[in-house]
Amino acid sequence: FELQVPTIEICDASGSTMLTVEPNGRRIQSCLAISSDGHVLPWVLFGDINNTASNFDAKSYASSPTTSGLSVGNSVQVGAFSAGAIGAPGFSLDVEQFSRASGDKSSAFDLMVQFGDVAVYSQAAFGLVKTNGHFINNANVGRSNTVGEHGLWGS
Known about the structure:
The chain is mainly beta. 3% of the residues lie in helices and 28% in strands. Strands 1-10-9-5-8 form a 5-stranded mixed beta sheet, with no helix packed on it. A 3-stranded antiparallel beta sheet has the order 2-3-4, with no helix packed on it. It is globular.
């Protein structure tokens, strides 16, 4: 995959476009930003982090209405559970909820995360590929020298 730092609108509760989608019959509020990769579809923010040690913990993961990733103690996978509020550090959106509505089981997808404290930055990864129809791929966690040994996004 290709990691780039595009110019992306910063998501916050007051100034960004908000959309409510209904995957699997659930209403999920999301923050959209205009795509910078030439695609018509907008970006959906999956995480907002300003402190890797204090934004999320095991309780954040356990209290999420949906989870699709792994959690070991206070080590959690941002974007694989839902917590916090859009526009505030400590926000995570379980993106797996959108996998059925985003093409076939081997479709490519892009990700955007927002991070920072005094200055806020956005970073995007382009061209990740679903694994067996899912964004989250933890099937090979713990196996050495193989695709997906560190888990999480695509294959």
